[in-house]
Amino acid sequence: MSWVTLIIQADATNAELLSDALMEQGALSVDIHDAAVDTQDEQMLFGEPGEPCGEIWQNAEVSALFDQAVNIDEVMHSLTNIAPSSGQLNFRLERVEEQDWVRLTQSQFDPIQISQRLWIVPTWHQAPDPEAINLILDPGLAFGTGSHPTTQLCLNWLDQNLRPGTKIIDYGCGSGILAIAALKLGASHVTGIDIDHQAIKASQENAARNHCVASKFYFTTTHQAAARYLQPQEYADVVVANILANPLIMLAPVLAQLVRQQGTIVLSGILHQQAAEVKHVYQQWFDMHSDNEQQGWVLLTGCKR
């Protein structure tokens, strides 16, 4: 059995209308994405933490998966009244053949060596070095498999700088990978905070898989997190936040409050051209510097004054 993917060029005015119409025409699934994804023209969309962004890419694509028996001409004809001001809709087709999707997915994720002593190992692989610190982690619905440069920058920093007994907050914990690594590297207590329920669920499951029974993960909004950690004895020695530049700028006052005096903040998810702006914002509280860079992504760290 095979399927057909119909990909239609769209813009902010008609993307959601096209998406709804395609579902009505029997699409098995529909998604809207940036037509320029993974290029220098990619458009980043941000919203307030915990709130939907409410924006659509100006240059978007609407992708709909259909059974192979679909009549594409009929589907396209049904869409002619959706965006009359846009003229003729441009589209292309891609055929999706039946495969062993589980095996195909697994084949894309091999063990990743972060450092001489730190590895990320999917559950379907044997650890290449059983004596190393192995993070057992499968791809899931939350960000953080260890393959992205921003995650690797944070993991390398933890491996090189974490002292035994350190208290850490992983802000935007995603899969929990940084929190789990910190615990395995000797942290005395790690708290993961994320606004996504799925991320917290993934963090808890991954922590259990890695036998991190002492770890704690909280689902909380940024304001609740600040209130929870404003007591001096609850300040963190290290706060690590692997998010993106704009949210990091917006969250700066909250993150700064969570770090004890002389404590460290570790920021990732920052492109090289964004580093100066992020550094400038955090210099209100920290002595900031660029710690490392990988594939155009920068890691910033700072000591709280």
TrEMBL record:
It comes from the Bacteria. It catalyses: L-lysyl-[protein] + 3 S-adenosyl-L-methionine = N(6),N(6),N(6)-trimethyl-L-lysyl-[protein] + 3 S-adenosyl-L-homocysteine + 3 H(+). Its main location: cytoplasm. Keywords: Cytoplasm, Methyltransferase, Ribonucleoprotein, Ribosomal protein, S-adenosyl-L-methionine, Transferase. Its EC number is 2.1.1.-. One of its GO terms (cellular component) is cytosol. SUPFAM superfamilies: S-adenosyl-L-methionine-dependent methyltransferases (SSF53335). GO terms for biological process: methylation. It is found in: Cytoplasm. S-adenosyl-L-methionine binds at residues 151, 172, 194, 242. One of its GO terms (molecular function) is protein-lysine N-methyltransferase activity. InterPro entries: Ribosomal_L11_MeTrfase_PrmA (IPR050078), Ribosomal_PrmA_MeTrfase (IPR004498), SAM-dependent_MTases_sf (IPR029063). Pfam families: PrmA. Belongs to the methyltransferase superfamily. PrmA family. NCBIfam families: prmA (TIGR00406). PANTHER family: ELECTRON TRANSFER FLAVOPROTEIN BETA SUBUNIT LYSINE METHYLTRANSFERASE (PTHR43648:SF1). HAMAP family: Methyltr_PrmA. Methylates ribosomal protein L11. This is Ribosomal protein L11 methyltransferase. It comes from Nitrosomonas supralitoralis.
